[in-house]
Task: structure prediction
Amino acid sequence: MDSIWFLAACVGFFWVVLWSLRDFSKPTRRFWPFDARWMERPPAAEPRRRWQRGAPGRRRG
Amino acid sequence: MRSLLFFCEMLALLPIVVARPFVGVLIFSFISFSSLHRFTWGFAGSLPWVYVTAVLTLIGCVVAREPKRLPVNATTLLVLSFLICITLTSIVALAPFDAVETKWEWVAKVYFFLLVTAALLTDRYRIHALLWVMVISLGYYGVKGGGFTLLTGGGGRVLGPPSSMISDNNHLAAALLVTLPIINYLRMQSAHRIIRIGLLLGMVLTLFAVVGSYSRGALVGLAAVSVVLWLRSPNKIITAALIVVAVTSAVSVMPQEWQDRMWTLQDAEATQSGQSRLAMWHAAWKMAVARPLTGVGFMGPYNATVMETYSPGTTPRAVHSIWFETLGEQGFPTFLVWLALSGVAVLNTFAIQRESKRIPELQWCRDLARMTQVSIVAYMVAGTFLSLGYWDFYFTLLVVIAATRMLVRQAVREAGRALSPDIGWRPRPLPGMTLPGLSVAGGPSQAGQGPGFRPAGGGTRGGILPGRQASARIAPPARGATAPAHGATPPAHGVTRTGFDG
Result:
């Protein structure tokens, strides 16, 4: 079990170095371990309540 | 086998350091923080990895064309001042020269490399990579220790790597407390669901490891971290529920022996451990008062002759407090420089939150600032009972937050022409409105995924704002044109997000 954690730490570190080496000015949808979503905040959930959304047909102002 | 694996990994990475010195910073940090090579049980454990990495990184800094500049800010100036101060106090230190020199060499190396780190932390990708390395380095002990605590039902103490700053159970627990908020930051910033769940599990296991260390100081630190984490959390009810559930589950796993030990906190001064700590704090204070400018120097409190001179009858040993350790060993001027490093970091976190609140793309800076505040509190509270005054991990975090502040300033300056200031007579754009000349497609959730992804700086690698926002150049509004006030149509949720969130 201890060796598995050791291996995970080594692989994780190796991945971070490779990730940091990639050129982020290129399109990022290649292979998920190296995309930019590792440092992207997930989108916020859609507001569901009526008062958050605004009444239909009306614009918030 | 482990030795061979570690050796091959380093052999593959070290040649890259000359061309990309930032990789050197990552390797240096990984080995310094985790001391993983000590678990190889072979030839790789005795090789001077840190030294080799440092030399190659410095060569890389000279020959490589990678972006690097040593920023002149309060943090770097204080690090430089601290280096000078500890050198001066070491010259007049009272402990034997060999002991002082060994400790000085170690601390000076760490603080010098902080300057190298500051020079190479030039964009968000590097900050993020360094934070991942920090989390992997200590998260390794958190996850492993948490699993051990669960499997043994809290029957054994969780210890750190041998021959390192965090080898002691108390030190490791404090280190894990400082790491917890950074794990949470990475969890918040990852769009990969599996990774978010994995980091959440990592946080829970790290919490178990903290409790499983049997450290009373860490329990006090854990209470402080929970309170500050709750205060800095946007969703107070859910956070409170999660904290209560996690802490209660961790405590419920522990045996009666653990609870008996923790109950001694009620009358800590009566315990032998509490009395020896108070005696050492008193001795360190006496040393600082007797030699206010220089202290007794590195390793003074460990030396029997020094202790007999300034506090007769006290057993020489570790001071067990970051405050008294620095004060007694270094004197008041160096202590103030050391303290100012944390003070400046706290100010940086508040400044980041203030300056970036009108730019949604800098949400990551606000998250990092909030979590760093929790880490600083963890270090201050848990460190009150431990000798971790020169701990490199914590000071690297302070350098990271200083670099983030620089990026925020740069981003605000770039956006400043369109984003009118808080004060002044010009009309301010309102939430949700599109600024004239600022056409931005794709929100933060789409940033960096499509072929249109470009970093800041018009094509150069790296940047401050993710996605197209980074490269959006904001044209000044036409003369006489005013921003629409109330009634501006808000963008559809999750499709386009421009303007402010303030």
